[in-house]
Inverse folding.
């Protein structure tokens, strides 16, 4: 009986790992905004290996690049913490409404952020 519980626990952990790594592999790449974003939005998000993110802002002929880290809180939520550039020290939490090869929609309690993949 104990062996069956161990096997079941291993299967559950494998399922959780696969589902989280699926989001991680799908999100990697450069995503450009297709809609509007409130409050000084970046023009794109570049999700890179190792949980790194780059978010460049281009406004009034000025360019500023923010860098930080991202992690999946669970299967449907992502946390982005900016460590340099615009919004340094801020942490953002988003619900992942849609994520596939070409489209991503992130949601907060006041907006939906629509993006399309522009580069792998």
């Amino acid at each position: 009986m104990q062996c069956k519980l161990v096997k079941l626990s291993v299967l559950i952990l494998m399922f959780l790992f696969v589902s989280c790594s699926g989001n991680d592999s799908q999100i990697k790449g450069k995503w450009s905004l297709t809609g509007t974003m409130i409050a000084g939005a970046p023009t794109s998000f570049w999700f890179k290996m190792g949980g790194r993110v780059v978010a460049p802002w281009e406004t009034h002929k000025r360019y500023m690049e923010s860098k930080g880290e991202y992690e999946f809180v669970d299967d449907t939520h992502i946390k982005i913490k900016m460590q340099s550039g615009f919004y340094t020290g801020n942490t953002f939490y988003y619900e992942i409404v849609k994520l596939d090869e070409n489209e991503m929609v992130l949601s907060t309690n006041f907006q939906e952020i629509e993006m399309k993949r522009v580069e792998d």
Summary: Confidence is low (pLDDT under 50) at residues 2-20.
